[in-house]
Each structure stands twice: as C-alpha cells, then as structure tokens.
Design a protein that fits this description.
The complex is a heterodimer of chains A (530) and B (444).
Chain A (H helix, E strand, L loop, with lengths): L1 H20 L5 E3 L2 H7 L2 H14 L4 E2 L2 H21 L11 H11 L1 E2 H5 L1 H21 L1 H4 L20 H19 L5 H6 L1 H7 L7 H23 L4 H24 L23 H8 L2 H26 L2 H4 L4 H8 L12 H34 L8 E2 L2 E2 H20 L4 H4 L3 H6 L1 H12 L3 E5 L9 H4 L7 H5 L15 H5 L5 E5 L24
Antiparallel strand pairs in A: 1-2, 1-3, 4-5, 6-7
Helix pairs in contact in A: 1-7, 3-4, 4-5, 7-12, 9-19, 12-13, 12-17, 13-17, 14-15, 18-19, 18-22
Chain B lengths: L2 E5 L3 H13 L3 E6 L11 H5 L15 H4 L2 E5 L2 E5 L4 E4 L4 E3 L2 E4 L3 E3 L12 E2 L4 H10 L5 E5 L3 H12 L3 E5 L12 H13 L3 E3 L4 E6 L5 E6 L4 E3 L2 E4 L3 E3 L15 E3 L10 E3 L4 E3 L13 H15 L12 E6 L2 E7 L9 E7 L6 E7 L5 E7 L5 H9 L4 H6 L1 H4 L10 H12 L11 H7 L1
Parallel strand pairs in B: 1-2, 1-7, 2-3, 7-19, 9-16, 10-11, 10-16, 11-12, 18-20
Antiparallel strand pairs in B: 4-5, 5-6, 8-17, 13-14, 14-15, 21-22, 22-25, 23-24, 24-25
Helix pairs in contact in B: 1-7
The chains are: A mainly alpha (530), B alpha/beta (444).
C-alpha cells in the first residue's frame, strides 16, 4: 500500500511535469486567413501591414514568444496613434487578451494535433495519480479518526521545501492566469476537448481552464477530505455539499446556460464577493436576457440583501463559507493540508479586522461608483462623464478593485499562499462577503461553538487546526462559547478536539456567549452562569 | 500588596496566578525549572506525533505574562526556608515571599525494578521527558510500555505514530482495569489491538535487561517472557514531586500535607495540584488528585482564599475525559471498576464495538450515580446538574437526546439504548425529544 501510494505520487508528478511543460511545447504560426478571421476591421486597418511583415507565416516556438511579438506590434502602433492624436483609431482591447486570442487561434504542430493525448498525459495522469495516492490512506492511516500524525514533520505541510516549491508554482500559475494568459495558451488548448463537450464550436479560454482545474482539484482533494475525516459526518456531508455546489453551480451551469442563450452566471455568487454585479455590462447582459436574465438580476439582489443575512442569522456564516462558496470549497479541499499554518497570534486578529472590513468598505464604495455609472447608462444616456463621481471615474475604481482585490488578494495571495499563510487567508483577511456576514454572525445570529463545561485540557488542537486563526482554546479553557465574526464553521476544531469539548450549534440567541465569567465548572462555592 | 510566589508553572500554579491577578493587585512570581512558559502537559503527545509544535501547546502567548504582571523565573528551588520566608534557587539567588504556593506536580513512579535506570527507560510527564523520548525513539524499533493507564496508552499511540512496535504490559485483565469496568476495558482492549499494539494482560514487569552498554535491550515479565525493546515506558502512576521540601519545616507525607483550604502546617504556605495531599478525603475523592481538571479547580479556589475570600476545596461532581487512540471517553459522576454495594448498572455497546455507554445508579433510590461514554460526547453542564440535583436514572435516560454533545449529523443511538435499557431493567422510560439543553437546566 505504501508502494502503491508512492506509485500514485509518481504518476501525479509525471502529470504535473507534463502540465508544467505544456507552455514550451508545440508551435504557433498565424496564417493570413486566421488574421482575417480574428482581427476586427479597426485592428486590421491598424495592424495588417506590420502583421504581414513580422507575424504571418512565421513559426514561433512558444505562445509567449508569439504573444510578445503581437503585443509589441500592438503597443507600438497604439502609441504611434496616440502620439498622432488619431483617437478614433486607438485600440482599447487589453493587449494580453488580444495576444491570447491570436495565439490560441494560431496553435499548430504537436499540441494542436494531440490535444486529447496531452489532456490525458497532464490532467489524466495528474488525476489518476492523485486518486491512487489519496485512496491508499484509507488503509494506511489506520482506523477512522483524527489523522494529523506528522503534519509538522512534513516538508509539504510545515513550510518546508515542498511547501515553498508548491507556493512558487501556485503563485506563478496565478500570475500567468490573471496577467499573462498568452503564455499559457497550450494549457487551455489541452482542455479544448472538454470544452467541446459543452460547445463544439468554442475553444477553451483561460477561465474555462481555471474553472475546470478548480473543479477537478476540489473533487480529488474532496475525496481525500472524505477519507481523512470519514468518522465525522459533519465533515462528510459538508465536503460533499461544497464540492457539488462548485461542480453544478460554478462549473456546469456556467457552461450550460450560454448554450440556451442565457447569461453564464454562477447563481450562488453573492455580492460583494460577486463584485461586478452592478457593472454596466453585467446589468445590461442580465436585463437583456429575457425573463431568466431579469430573474437573475433580482435574485442577485435578494440573495445579498435577504437570503445571506437571514441564513447567517439561523445558521451562522458557515452555510455559505463552508457549504456553498467556491473559495471556501477550494480552501476546505485543496487547502485542508495547510489549515494549521494560519497565524493565531493576537496581532493577526487585529490586522484581520482592519483588512477585511477595509475591503468591505472598498467594495461598497466601488459598488456605489459602478451603480452610479450603470444608473446613468440607463437613465441619462446622453450625459457626459457618466462614470465620474466626486472627480473619480467608475472605470478606474472598479479596475483598481479588480486588480487589488479580485486578482491579487483573492487569487495570488488567497490561493497561491496556501502553503505559507494557510488555506483561508482570502476568507479571513480579504473577502468582503465574509466581512458582511461576519458582522451579522457576531451581533445577530443563533450560531455559536459551544464549550462543553470544564472539559477543556488546553491542548491547543482546536486553535492549531483553525484555518481562520481563531484562538479557540482561549475561549474553551475559560468555559466560554466561541462567537467570532471570522468563524466559517468548518467544524474542524470540534473534530480534532480529543476531549469532546466543542460543538457547533444553532440555538437561542439568549446566552449564546455562554459562561462569561472567568470560572469554569469546578468548585461548588462558585456561582456559574450557565 | 503581598508578594505571592508560586513554585511550578503547571495548570494548578498558573491557574492560581491568573485568578490572583484577576482578583488582586498582588505581586506574583512563578518559578519553574521545567520550561520558561506554561504549556499544556496533556498535549505533549501531540508535539511528538507532529500534530502541533511546542509553541502551539502554550495556551498563552509569551507577552501575556508581562502584560498581566506575572513575573516568571526559570530556575530551580533548592530550599524553602519558612522561618525567613525565603527560597534558595539553584542559580544562587534567593527570593522572599509573603505567601508561598507549592504546585510542583508529579514525577513518574519507579518501583525499584532491576534496570529501571538504564538509558531508554523513562516516563512521560515533563517537557524533559518529551525531549528524552525524542532522543530515545530515533533508533528504536520496538518499545514496551509498563502500566495500563492514560499515559501508557498515550505513549503507545506516540510510538506507533513513529512506526515503533509497541507491547503493553497490563497487570489487570483489561486496560486501565483499576478504573474501567470489565466491559468498558474490553472495548479498549480490542481497539488497542486494532492499532497493532500487542497487549500482555495479567502481566507485570520483572526486570529490564541491559544491552551491555547501559542501554535497554529487553524486558523480562513476571511470567518469564522476554521481550526485546529499545524503549521502556514506565507509566505506572506518578508521585508528588516534593523531594526538595524534605529539609524544610513543611510537613510532607507522600505529598505536601494540606487541609481543605490547601494550607500546610506552616502559615502562608499552600500546596495545590498533583503535589497536594489532603489530610482527609474531600467529597469522597482520593487524598491526592493527579488530574488536569482538579489542578485547575484547586488553582481557582486557592486564588479566592489568597485574595481574601476564604474558600474551602469543595469540588463539584467528578468528571474526566480521555482519548484511547480514536475512541473518546468521557465520564461524569462515579463509575467504579467494580460495582459498589447497592448499585446497579446498565451497559450498551454498538454492534461495531467502538461506541458504548455505561450508567450506574442506586438500586433502592434510582438516583443516578455516574456514566461512562465511549465514542459519544455528553454535555457536562447537564450531567453536573443531574448529579448535584440527585436526578433519577430514568430522568437521565429519558433526556439522552438533549444530553448528547456529538457534532451535527452524527448517528444517534438513543433509541437502541433506551430499548435495551427498558428490556433489561423494566424501568418505565420514555425517550424525550431533543430540547434546547438549557431549558432542562432551568427546570432542574
């Protein structure tokens, strides 16, 4: 079994190596015809001669080299146009998106001819190897129960060299995905066969690649989670649920809805996590997509204003963060091996409150800007500077937000830093929806983690494995309940407690903080507030 | 303002310090030769197994002590002079006190076995023991653990987590047989074997064999069996750590002899925790209580006295908990290994043999006496109320659903339990639906 596990690991690593090598395989050559198909009239007018001279029928070894040549031409031309003040000719497409699109269409050679094979050699081997690897734990880890042996002896889980390598790989992947998609065109090429299952006409974008990788990772690591916590039904039910929400709502529905000419919306994505909800293009898309689109628009509003707080009142924010949310879902599956890395020191709690509530304020301001802009688009179509409020452009505000919060915080730091900062740094420090729900959870909710009288032995497993960095022990050893805005209700503190001290509960609001005095059950001389 | 000096930074001493700080402005000094900062002794096993780092088992961050004006001294007290109210430290310093609290805990028992001082023979109590075990387990292939108690099974789990073969020598017919009733112990016996530890029942240690270089080579049992091993875990109980007081005027028996106010024979000298020995049993408990929870209760209680609210040790109903590999154990009230006179009991076990409930009551009055649960979590407060209020066993059984503290979605066995209970006892019990547990407390 140990041998099989190692074989699984070897297969997984082989798949990973092939996946990582993909951007260096194949070649990219643009024909005249592709240029005519892919470029708009304006772009053709601007770029055709340069393209014919430097790009057309030239073979590039990587999408990166091809893309850089395209970007070079594109930017040079644009600057020239701006210098000549030919404003009607200036192009506003993002140059890297532009390069991605053209590289994608110009894929030739080995990769273009062997997409399915390469899909199996990268994703296929990766999935197969990972499944073999995690499945062996069913026997290797012994009888069902808490299995954290060797976590802090592990180079992967304790910021050792494997952790650092994983961190660098993940961060690189996010930087390429968000900011340099033209470099990873081949990664999207190999998932084309999957995309074709939904739409034989379309190629996979980087977002399809990401969605597919994300969902597959959650399923495989979800299976690991199920094996590890199989004695704990809360973990089993929760893990299955959060993986299904990702698979159905965030992946399948988003792919299937457009086939019926409906907007590709993730129905469970609530504002302000769904930060572009009031962007003009989103509102336009929804309101112009018939009854279903209008329903989605109103559902989005009701979800955020009514469903979210009401559910938090009854169940705590866990109903979203640990049962429904995609970010939370990845954290609970891929991120589970890293949950102990969250910092528990008091200063991080202070930092957390400033950061996460700061992001919420930023999200509200950004939404006011975009809402104002969208309102004008509908109601004051002739107005000049529809996007300007207090001297700032809604376009600028939303692009700052998108860059700083949407990309850097949620993606690069939120996930890329799993092996360094733990699995919930986005949820803990950055997510504006978590901040919003946290305020409700702290002040008006039936949810709490109950401490079981005086049974705590201060061992610290609860605090150590709290992904949100809550010092659970500090409450438990005083006999107090845990009522914290940041708690996502993953239930792992209750699972790892060796003395059965913690229980996630929804009960009457009255007395939910439990014993607020310093005394735990002990000497009979004390009055205890139960 | 007085100067309170506490010797020992375990749970008893530290709890006393914290509560003295809460209730007074006294100067507080804690002296320990074990570690600079308080840690949770019960969690040492998790550091060894890699669940946590040492820093994670410190319940308070290092700045906590200065912020709360609790002075710490990392030193060893060699002598206590109660006439001059001063302590002599190993470093040569001397420290004066107005009130002295002795909370020096225990040390593992050794019973004079041949070879008990060889390299590789050790107990597991202190931070130093952990370091030693880390060292001893580097090259060890197999270990023998002597004694069927809580520390013994923890050591077994620790060894197994490092791939070291384990044999447990247990004197009784079941694991922890002086505390657990037969059936409860059998359940644990099976679980120990499921984890591939060898269990030698009715077996005692005779001697430990030297490999010729002062290291352990094997043990020989009273039955004459020789078991090769490189580590011997001695987990046959602990003894108060009070040798340093032998020259002082403080009265020592096995521990520091104290009354119910933790007062020793000397004015202003108190003892709490493992090292305190009560002159007479409090609430039917043992005279020396070596349990985490009682250490904490004693610390809380003595702090009241020190701060002017004189309070006797009067612990509430007994409770305890442990974990045997994967099986959690909780107990409330008294379930003795052998049923006491006038008591009746009921035992239920899940067909898979890992979940069980054992309840004891007074046969004439039906008053609930105590419960052991394995693999089921129960609400402490509720059982505390029931025990204090002399609830009848029928009431306890009828409200098992409300008493359950298992995580959400767990399977529930109350129906099966009650069915068997009614069949066996012919008592009239209707299982009540789950209510919010506090309602039950207010009604009690």
């Amino acid at each position: 079994m140990k041998l099989l596990k190692n074989i699984g690991l070897a297969i997984f690593l082989l798949g990973l190596v092939i996946f990582t090598a993909l951007p260096f395989l194949g070649s990219f050559k643009m024909s005249e015809q592709i240029m005519l198909e892919q470029l708009s009239e304006q772009e053709l007018g601007n770029l055709q001669s340069d393209f014919e001279e430097k790009i057309i029928d030239v073979e590039f070894g990587t999408s990166s080299a091809f893309g850089n040549a395209v970007i070079d031409i594109y930017n040079t031309k644009n600057e020239e146009l701006k210098a000549n003040e030919e404003w009607d000719k200036v192009m506003y497409t993002q140059e890297k998106e532009f390069a991605f699109k053209l590289a994608k269409a110009s894929t030739t050679g080995f990769v273009a001819d062997n997409k399915l094979l390469l899909f199996f050699l990268s994703f296929g081997l990766g999935i197969l190897g990972a499944l073999i690897y995690v499945y062996q734990d069913l026997k290797l880890l012994g009888p069902a129960g808490i299995k954290n042996d060797g976590v802090y002896h592990s180079a992967a889980q304790n910021r050792g060299w494997i952790g650092i390598v994983t961190f660098l790989w993940l961060v690189s992947f996010y930087v390429l995905l968000y900011f340099n998609p033209h470099i990873i065109v081949n990664l999207t090429n190999v998932v084309d066969p999957v995309k074709h299952l939904f739409n034989p006409e379309a190629g996979a974008s980087q977002w399809f690649l990401y969605g597919f990788l994300y969902t597959v990772t959650m399923i495989v690591m979800g299976i690991r989670m199920l094996i590890k916590y199989r004695h704990n039904k809360y973990q089993v039910v929760r893990t299955i649920t959060v993986v299904l929400f990702q698979l159905i709502f965030a992946f399948l529905m988003v792919e299937i809805l457009p086939l019926f000419d409906l907007p590709a919306k993730d129905l469970k994505n609530a504002w302000p996590l769904d930060h572009y909800f009031l962007f003009d293009w989103n509102v336009q898309q929804l309101l112009s997509s018939g009854h279903f689109g209008k329903f989605l628009f109103f559902w989005g509003i009701i979800l955020s204003i009514i469903v979210v707080p009401v559910m938090v009142y009854f169940f705590g924010k866990r109903w979203y963060c640990s049962w429904v949310c995609g970010c939370g879902g990845l954290a609970e599956t891929l991120g589970d091996p890293y949950r102990q890395l969250s910092n528990k020191k008091l200063w991080t709690w202070k930092l957390e409150r400033w950061l996460i509530n700061g992001v919420l304020v930023f999200a509200v301001i950004m939404t006011i800007y975009t809402g104002y802009h969208t309102y004008n688009v509908y109601n004051n179509p002739d107005m000049d500077g529809k996007d300007i409020l207090f001297g700032l452009s809604a376009y600028d505000v939303r692009s700052w937000y998108g860059f700083l919060i949407g990309s850097i915080f949620a993606g690069v730091i939120g996930t890329g830093f799993y092996p360094i900062l733990g699995n919930r740094s986005w949820c803990r420090f950055g997510c504006p929806l978590a901040a919003y729900m946290g305020i409700v959870q702290r002040f008006k909710s039936r949810f709490r983690i109950t401490t079981n009288g005086g049974q705590c032995i201060s061992c610290g497993n609860c605090s150590t494995y709290c992904e949100q960095g809550i010092d659970v022990r500090a409450y438990a050893q005083k006999g107090q309940n845990i009522v914290r805005s940041s708690c996502v209700g993953c239930g792992v503190c209750a699972a790892v407690c060796p003395r059965g001290v913690l229980k996630l509960e929804n009960g009457p609001e009255e007395g939910r903080f439990g014993n607020e005095g310093p005394i735990v059950l002990g000497n009979d001389g004390f009055k205890i507030d139960v | 303002m007085e100067k309170i000096v506490i010797i020992g930074n375990g749970i008893a001493g530290v709890t006393a310090a914290r509560h003295i700080r809460k209730n007074s402005d006294n100067e507080i000094l804690i002296i320990s030769a074990e570690t600079e900062h308080f840690f949770s002794r019960t969690a040492l096993m998790y550091v060894f197994m890699g669940h946590m780092r040492f820093q994670d088992i410190k319940p308070y961050e290092d700045w906590f002590w200065e912020k709360n004006r609790i002075d710490l001294k990392f030193d060893y007290v060699e002598r206590v002079d109660t006439d001059t109210k001063s302590l002599q430290l190993k470093s040569g310093q001397s420290v004066n006190y107005d009130k002295l609290i002795i909370a020096t805990g225990s040390k593992p028992n050794k019973f004079g076995w041949p070879g008990e001082n060889l390299n590789g023979v050790q107990g597991l109590y202190s931070y130093q023991d952990l370091e030693m075990l880390e060292e001893n387990s580097k090259t060890a292939k197999s270990a023998v653990i002597v004694g069927g108690g809580l520390i013994g099974i923890e050591m077994a789990e620790m060894m197994i987590s490092r791939g070291i073969e384990v044999t447990l020598l247990v004197r009784e017919s079941v694991f922890w047989g002086n505390v657990l009733p037969q059936k409860d112990g059998e359940l644990i016996n099976r679980h120990i074997k499921e984890h591939h530890a060898k269990l030698r029942l009715h077996t005692e240690l005779k001697e430990i064999v030297d490999d010729g270089n002062g290291n352990v080579a094997a043990v020989i049992t009273q039955n004459g069996e020789k078991i090769d091993c490189q580590i011997v875990g001695l987990t046959v109980g602990v003894t108060p750590n009070v040798n340093f007081l032998k020259e002082s005027n403080i009265q020592i028996d096995r521990g520091v002899v104290v009354n119910e106010y933790f007062e020793s024979n000397i004015q202003d000298v108190y003892a709490i925790g493992d090292c305190a020995q009560f002159t007479k049993s409090v609430n039917g408990r043992r005279n020396i209580e070596q349990v985490w929870y009682t250490g904490r209760i004693m610390g809380e209680t003595l702090a009241q006295t020190i701060c002017g609210n004189k309070m006797a040790y009067n612990p509430g109903p007994w409770f305890n908990s442990a974990k045997f590999f994967d099986i959690e154990y909780q107990t409330y009230g008294w379930v003795f290994a052998k049923l006491q006179e006038g008591e009746k009991d009921f035992y239920w076990e899940h067909p898979k043999g890992k979940i069980a409930l054992h309840i004891v009551w007074d046969s004439s009055t039906s008053v609930f006496k105590g419960i052991n649960v394995f693999g089921i979590r129960m609400r402490h407060q509720l059982f505390d109320q029931w025990l204090k209020g002399q609830a009848k066993v029928e009431e306890v059984m009828a409200n098992l659903k409300t008493a359950n503290f298992d995580p959400e979605f767990y399977s529930h066995y109350e129906k099966d339990i009650i069915q068997k209970f009614v069949e066996e006892t012919h008592k009239n019990v209707d299982l009540k639906p789950k209510t919010w547990w506090r309602k039950l407390i207010t009604n009690a």
